[in-house]
Amino acid sequence: MLTLKQLRDDREAAIRKLAKKGVDAAPVIARIEELDDRRKALQTELDNLLADQNRTAREIGQLMAQGRRDEAEERKRFVGDMKARSTQLAAELQSTSDELQAAIVTLPNFPADIVPEGLTAEENVVVKLVENYTGLPEHPLPHWELARKYDLIDFDLGVKLTGAGFPVYKGKGARLQRALINYFLDCNTRAGYQEVEPPVLVNEASGFGTGQLPDKEGQMYHVGEDNFYLVPTAEVPLTNIFRDTILEREQFPVKLTAYTPCFRREAGSYGKDVRGLNRLHQFDKVELVQLSLPECSYEALDGMVAHVESIVASLGLPYRILRLCGGDMSFTSALTYDFEVYSEAQQRWLEVSSVSNFESFQANRLKLRYRDENRRTQLAHTLNGSSLALPRIVAALLENYQTNDGIRIPEALIPYTGFDFIG
Fold first, then answer.
1. What is the pLDDT of residue 53?
2. Residue 125 DSSP label
3. Which residues of 36-63 are buried (b: 16+ CB within 10 A; e: fewer)?
4. Average pLDDT, integer, range 405-412
5. Which residue, 99, 102, 90, is CA-closest to 43?
6. What is the pLDDT of residue 218?
7. In the chain, fewer beta carbons within 10 Å around the N or the C end?
8. Is residue 98 packed enough to be buried (19+ CB in 10 Å), middle (13-18) or exposed (0-12)?
9. Distance (Å, whole) CA 253 – CA 357
10. pLDDT value of position 67
11. Could you give the CA distance from residue 209 to residue 365 in angstroms, rounded to a whole number?
12. Secondary structure (DSSP) of 186-201
């Protein structure tokens, strides 16, 4: 979340930055300033009153020592009144602080200066395009038809077992899933990321720490009896490893990777854009997370983008990299690059990764800090990226590598699949 300093140091700049994300922050910031002023006034009054109580308590002790009991008893009644008032003030202070916190967490992160203006995906900026189209049959099939033809994925069985958006992978389809997960993890560990296997259920504090709660509460699967949430991405447990932590400068950068199944309700999703593997409620994804010193975080972001690009390029798929405009960015992000691969059969681009710098937004929620050169604690920066999300990668591989006789496997994956052709 944003800090009070970010909001109050330059109110007009804060309003202008948030407008880039399509948010009218002026009334919220005005309310935050009002609550913050009220909180400070209450704190000052309470501090003064407690100081008076302590001073009066000492006076009572002196009066009792001098045998002036009546005066001491009178002062005790005065202290009783002060205690009642201090209790009232403490309750008002807590209520005001809670309301202030609730107002601050409704505001998204500031976008970085280089984030393009715009409110929709059509206004994202293509920063790189790599065309790498393979020769296809005259009438290429979409992946859902290829999956049925070669018995790789059973969408109907998934509906029977759970519901729409929960496919069942079979035979070489399941092997391809496992191969991709292992390949992506190996690419990441070779690049210096430590592999972690986190839980796929997290508590409410973890969801709040990375910004999924309360912003995306309706998109997360909730286990009501235990108040746990199924992870929408491994970013949540990985980043929360460092909640309420103070690191030393020499511990940076922290680089983690993990595979998890991911769960998203995707409420309101329907139509041709969600057919097959295009949008699922359960899917596999390999994730990257970095913790960085603030002065190094954009260099770290560039490194993550280059690393994800190397993985996408190794699969031989046509791809492009987008810099997202303000209105298409996530609640928590300061700058995001999306990777999309092209589906020849569907004639559309499919998003397979987002790589983002959150600056100190998540760290402030997490209370993730480090000690600077003067041993003062400062907020760290957090970053994350998909490397990669499997469903649309599988869709693009099936569609772009299809032949009249079957489906070829990219050379980089053959050591992991154990086969070079599906037919």
1. 86
2. E
3. bebbeebeeebeebeeebeeeeeebeeb
4. 97
5. 90
6. 83
7. C
8. exposed
9. 14
10. 83
11. 5
12. HHHHHTTPEE----SE
Tell me the torsion sign for CA atoms 276, 279, 285, 287.
positive
Residue 247 near residue 210, CB atoms below 8 Å: no
CB neighbourhood size of 145 (10 A) = 15
Burial of 418 (0-12, 13-18, 19+ CB in 10 A): exposed
Whether the predicted model's global pTM rises above the 0.90 cut: yes
> Which residue's structure tokens are 């309700």?
265
Structure tokens at 308: 């994800």
Please count the other Cβ atoms lying within 10 Å of the Cβ belonging to residue 127: 11
pLDDT one-digit tens code per residue, 312-361: 999 999 999 999 999 999 999 999 999 999 998 898 999 999 999 999 99
CA angle 402, 405, 410 (to 5 degrees): 40
Mean pLDDT (whole number) for 9-31:
97
Neighbours of 103 (CB within 10 A): 18
* 3-state secondary structure at position 139: coil
**Identity of residue 225:** E
